[in-house]
Amino acid sequence: MKFPEFFAAAPRITVYDPLARFLGATVDGVIEYTYLDTVKLAGHSCPTVASALLMTRAALRALYADAMPERGAIRIELRDELIAGVTGVIANVVSLLTGATHDTGFKGIAGRFDRRGLLFFGVEIPGQIRFTRLDSGASAIVSARLDRVPSDPRLAALMPRCVAGTATADEAVLFQSLWQDRVRLLVVDRADDPEVIVVQR
Question: Helices (DSSP H) in the chain: which residue ranges?
Answer without folding.
Answer: 18-22, 35-42, 47-64, 87-98, 155-164, 169-184
